[in-house]
Amino acid sequence: MALSLAINDLDADYGAVKALRGASLRVEAGETVALLGTNGNGKSTLMKCIAGLVRPQRGAISLTIDGAAHDLSRLSTEDIVELGVAMVPEGRRLFPRLTVLENLMLGAFRKAARRSIDRNLAIVFEAFPVLKERQAQLAGTMSGGQQQMLAIGRALMSSPRLLLVDEPSVGLSPLLVSQTITKIGELNQNLGLTVLMAEQNFNQAIRIASRGYIIVHGEIVVAAASVDELRGNDIVKRLYLGGAT
Amino acid sequence: MFSFDLLLDAVVIGVLLGCFYGAVSLGLSVSFGLLDVPHVAHPAFLVLASYAVYFLNEHYAVDPLVAGLLITPVFFLLGLVAYRLYYETFEKRGSDAAVRGIAFFFGVAFIIEVLIILQFGVDQRSVTADYIGRAWRLGDIRIPYRLLVAFAVATALTVLLTLYLSRTFMGRAIRAVAQDQEALRLMGANPIKIKQWAFGIATAVLGIAGALLIIVAPVDPTLDRAYIGRTFCVVVMAGLGSMGGTLVAAIILGVAETIVLTMFGASWAPAISFAMLLGVLAVRPQGLFGRRS
Amino acid sequence: ATPLGAKLVRAQQTPIRIGMSMPQTGGLAGGGKASLLGIEIWRDDVNAKGGLLGGRKIELVVYDDKSSASETPAIYSKLIDVDKVDLLFAPYATVPTAPIMPMVKQRGLLLMGNFSFQVNSKVGHDMWFNNAPWGPADSWATSFLDIGQRAGGKSMALLAADQEFAQNLAKTAREVAAKRNLPMVFDQAYPPNTVEFSSIIRALKAAKPDIVYIASYPPDSAGILRAVNEIGIGDNVKVFGGGMVGLQFGAVMENMGSLLNGVVNYNTWLPEKSMYFEGTKEFFDKYTKRAVEAKIDPLGYYLAPFGYASGQLIAQAINAVGSLEQKALAKYLRENTHKTIVGPIAFSPDGERKETAVLQAQFRGVVDKNMEQFRSSGKQVILFPENLKSGELIAPFEAARK
Amino acid sequence: MTRNSIAFWTGSTVFLVAVFVMTQVVGNQYPFFAGYVILQFIALAVAWSILGGYAGYVNFGTSAFFGVGVYAAVFLVKAFGAPLPLQILAGAAIGALMGFALGLLTLRMQGIFFSIATIALTIIIETTITNWRYVGGAAGIQIQRPAVTAPFDNYVQMLFFVQALLVVLAVAISRYIQNSWIGRGLQALRDDELAAECTGVPTLRLKLLACVISGALMCAVGAPAAMYLQYADPASAFNLNYSVTTLAMSLIGGTAHWSGPIIGAILLGTTQQLLTVTISSEVNVLVLGLMLVLFVVGAPEGIIGLIRKLRGDRKEGEV
Amino acid sequence: MTLSDTRSPLLRISSLTKRFGGFTALHDVSVDIRPGERFGLIGPNGSGKTTLINCISGAFRTEPGTVLFRDEDIALLQPHVRTRRGIARSFQIPRPFRSMTVAENLMVALDFAAHEHVSAAQRRDSMMSILDQMGLGPKANVSATQLSQVELRKMELARAMATHPKLLISDEAMAGLSSSEVDEVLDLLLSLASRDITIIMIEHIMQAVMRFSERVMCLDAGRIIAIGSPSEVMADQRVQEAYLGT
Ligand SMILES: Nc1ncnc2c1ncn2[C@@H]1O[C@H](COP(=O)(O)OP(=O)(O)OP(=O)(O)O)[C@@H](O)[C@H]1O
Ligand SMILES: Nc1ncnc2c1ncn2[C@@H]1O[C@H](COP(=O)(O)OP(=O)(O)OP(=O)(O)O)[C@@H](O)[C@H]1O
Ligand SMILES: CC(C)C[C@H](N)C(=O)O
Ligand SMILES: [Mg+2]
Ligand SMILES: [Mg+2]
Prior knowledge:
The complex is a heteropentamer.
Chain C: H1 3-13, E1 16-22, H2 29-48, E2 58-64, H3 72-82, E3 87-92, H4 94-97, H5 101-107, E4 111-114, E5 128-130, H6 139-150, E6 156-161, H7 164-179, E7 184-190, H8 198-206, E8 211-216, H9 218-231, E9 239-244, H10 250-256, E10 264-267, H11 280-294, H12 304-321, H13 326-335, E11 337-338, E12 345-346, E13 359-363, E14 380-384, H14 397-401
Parallel strand pairs in C: 1-2, 1-3, 3-4, 4-5, 6-7, 6-8, 8-9, 9-10
Antiparallel strand pairs in C: 10-13, 11-12, 13-14
Helix pairs in contact in C: 2-11, 2-12, 6-7, 8-9, 12-13
Chain D: H1 3-25, H2 30-54, H3 62-80, H4 84-105, H5 112-130, E1 141-142, H6 155-179, H7 181-191, H8 193-198, H9 203-229, E2 231-232, H10 234-237, H11 240-253, H12 259-276, H13 282-298, H14 302-318
Antiparallel strand pairs in D: 1-2
Helix pairs in contact in D: 1-6, 2-6, 2-9, 2-11, 2-12, 3-4, 3-5, 3-9, 3-11, 4-9, 6-7, 6-9, 7-9, 11-12, 11-14, 12-13
Chain E: E1 11-20, E2 23-33, E3 38-42, H1 49-57, E4 66-69, E5 72-73, H2 79-85, E6 87-89, H3 102-112, H4 120-133, H5 149-162, E7 167-171, H6 179-194, E8 198-202, H7 206-212, E9 215-220, E10 223-228, H8 230-235, H9 237-244
Parallel strand pairs in E: 3-8, 3-9, 6-7, 7-8
Antiparallel strand pairs in E: 1-2, 1-4, 4-5, 9-10
């Protein structure tokens, strides 16, 4: 299955606030790419542009699947999801008054996913056993970390080909951070999932990412072809490796 | 003077009356309970449906229940249009939709009232059918067939809606849509279309409920005002959006009302049933079957 | 034309303006619209004949009071102070009329009442005249209980809507029953907007009354009758009905059909021979035509002819007095008997009819789904008053329903 | 006193003086009858907004408070022949109590649950009054006005002036609340009650306070209506129209500023008075319906919001 | 152990239990927090940290158990009273006053919770200085709805600080921050602590917990599994298994 995402010269703004300026990046089939950048720099905005939740002012987002190119900047979110793009949004965005299971089932709303509900559910429960235990609990009453797992699980339910993950480690315990990141890595390996992940936890991110971008004030300032190149970058040193022990 | 017979009778009639209240509230349980649309024009649509049923019954001698079924597609479309209007004018623009929506729907209700008056005049109207005006003898108790019809329709609607909302993808999406629209978008569902569809269903249900309304009692153009309190109370007492809960709450209301009506001073009936509602809310602010996080 | 002639023509052309509010929306709208149509037909008749006072046309100034008491003070102030109408008619029914009674009294204005009940009893305005045939307050209950007792009734049940008019009826009924030592075995007021009457009727039936007096409002009357038919009322009931508002309206009667049979209920006008007076038939010919266009009660027996009669009363007074001087008009109305399409009318000092002309009539042989049947005589047999009587009571109630 | 306050109080004084002069020189009664109704709605809308606008607790029970005011007056007149000021004071006191009770009862209810509770309350109170024979019960009651007090020579003129006083009182209170810590607290609890609590806002007490003030004002406004109508019956006194109209006026005017409800009430109240004496048929209701729809659609933040936007746009343009 | 041991505890929680239906989120939790202490609270997701905070701040009623603050039982007090007595908290999932600007959000706290009577001008100053410390100065007049997730979290903390608390509870205020930003916020908390404000910090970012805390407590499934100095706790076998996973 050939899939690639190419973003070219993207501009996006919220009224007066410019969130993206001329951002470009590529994700190839089967890759895990990290998107780094301190808060407010436009990571989420970029993710939202890909998912069709924010309309860019300029630029192209093209998703090529099996040779067919789709211009995502013209498609609605629903159509983008239909193409196999799933997103784990920042802040989880669960349906708090539905049960865990119902949240997962909604993840399978997309037509292509309805056929493989059982298989996907097994994958999710295997990855996050607590979700199986708490199937009938209302999502809104789950703890912060449990909610994060549910959000990832829900995205997996749609049998995605491209997974966009916006800060999966936020609010997770160290154990879970590494587990979650590992899980995403496994998903990438086992299911051949292509992953674009915004993440602050640099050390965790580079465990599974093969390369990464750094975004500052809406501009992609670094496009590193390898993890080492990232580690050697000045900005990374200053922002992520400075105080850390 | 206490009579066991009367009490039993009151309970039976109360349950059936409650089913009727349930049937006319179910649509609201979807539109308001699930979609958060403050649909105070719900009873006005209900009365409109009754008049449509009346029209078919009067001019083409269609059985009112059949007429109710016949108009559901029309009401479904009406619901689609109504929601579109509400969406374009309120939800799309965001903030404070609920409160202004109330004023909006009051306006819509007034407009519907007047349109009915202009078309049908102010006199009350009713329909004829074999089951109206006769009763089923069950030992000492006589149960009007009208109410049995209400019972059947209400239970059928409740079961159907409950199944639809919990077993189908569309149904689950309807329940999710008021909680987080953008997230629903990420599931590949268009929240606006989902809401529109749900509103269509809520309004279609009104078609049948409107038939019940005019089967149970005659209607007049301003009857809707009497039902604003009742329907909203039922939906709220149930705790927003639970179909089974709506039916149960409605039955509680119906039984309480009937018992007070027969056993104690009839004129106190509304005070008692609404006091009960207040009591329920004071103890369980989320309603009887409400789930709040 | 000479200047003098021109002036004369202009004086003739100044219309006589009659102001009123009329419920055209809200709970009383059905009656209000029919009533107004009656008045309008009168206006057109008078104008067609060249008007009053040597050629002055009648002009109506009508506002909608939404069936509410809170609207009428401002409306009548507008009529008096801004529109400066020549004469005032009251709105249909008691509630909207009540707030303007003190006002017209204070200003010394004549008010032609319209179907309100005992609205002048506390105010005591001597320029008030009610067009309705009620008469003394208790005559309503008296006539119904007379019929019931004559049929052998020894106990009574009372069911009344918890609303203004029905409660007033219920009150007089209680008084009359107490005076006659008639035991009251059931006495309930049901709240407005009651949907289902089965359980109330069941409770009423359990009390085993002989006479059942119902004072209900239009939305409820049909529900009560249906419940009676479904639940049954018991064989001991001799007469049933009395004060059910709504069973006079064509649409309701058509829909109730055979359920009506046996009910003895009040009415104001019925197509029985004894009810036709000069102009009555012509009036209904016109009414029938216009009601259809206006989507108003097609029969219009209950209110419309009395609206017309209001006009006739005032017209006769104006013709007799020769001016619009209110005191003189009132004096004339009080002291004379007037011919109208609903029969001769004479007032007692409180402005109500000297004698009651409320009919008590029993529905007979009514079939389902037929409006026209009500236009022929015999469907509602008049039992009271004696002078208009057109048949005898069939009792008990169950027997009369067959 | 700030510049704003001086302007406000000057304006209020000018308004009251104008109203007073009007009662002394205008002979035609109609302006007072119609004006009274408009003033009554201004006061109601302003009072409603204290709870409904600032605190976001949408009260459907305006008619309950109004009706209780009416019947408080009826009772006092019938039992003691109490004078008008006493009727109004008693109305306010009872309204405060009622607001307090409503507040206590609905402490834990939020959003639409509160609104439904107010509907329930209205029906309970109306039923109670309907069953209270002493004040006429369902049949209603006619009451006689006493002689008018100097310097007025007509009772309705006096009522008009009294209602104007109530308007100024209501507006002054509403304005004070908006500009004080109370207003900020109410706004905070409207946004998020738990967060407000944890930021130190005594949400329950503020809600109660808003209920009490709003209730007292609405009842006080209802009290003189007994003397205005000289008649009271439950169906009219507790008419749903008071609730709907008051809500509509506040929303049409805008609830973000104390002047919103005033503008809304003047606009809608005047239109209704005009319609009553012009179109005057079911089309009247149609116009009301259309107005409601058009205004909430066309001016989402109310007229106040519209004005602000226009002004804001111009300012931006100037910069 | 530090000097502050001799003083009575600022916050004393004894035998606290909290149930949701049949599920027990907190099990017989007892702990003392000393005045001026920097206290770290860790534990796996769903272990009951936020629940404990909710019990302290009054968002939840506790059934068995007592909460003493400055030797007074506060278990029955409403949240705003607790806030006024000096307990402030930030919410893990931000709860801004949406109809207000950032500045107004803080003004609510200053209006209602700040005890001393100060002039309006002083309040503005105090508000601006808090905003500046949090790096939110430029956003003072921006509507709260326009903030990004992280800015919202900062505002949560700023609003809590504006109540001038004696005890500040920060629930994952640093989640999602880059390490340089974590350092910024950490410095801020440390400087607050140096002004004798007691701080309970919930955080999953270990470097922050280590650097900040004088004492750390680890919850698991509603029970305390370890409490002590940061290094002790980190070295604890059960903490490693349940939480750190290293
Ligand atoms: N809905 C919005 N309206 C206005 N401005 C917004 C909105 N959402 C985000 N912004 C602004 O856009 C800029 C980029 O935000 P974005 O959420 O993309 O950043 P981010 O890199 O994901 O940051 P974080 O780490 O905080 O999640 C920020 O300055 C933010 O304040
Ligand atoms: N209102 C509630 N109803 C039912 N269960 C609840 C409720 N609130 C919390 N819980 C449960 O209580 C447990 C403790 O939750 P809490 O939010 O305290 O965890 P936490 O330690 O803060 O976790 P995290 O680090 O993920 O935020 C969780 O299992 C959660 O699902
Ligand atoms: C509708 C009717 C009951 C009106 C009644 N005639 C009255 O005076 O109020
Ligand atoms: Mg982000
Ligand atoms: Mg937590």
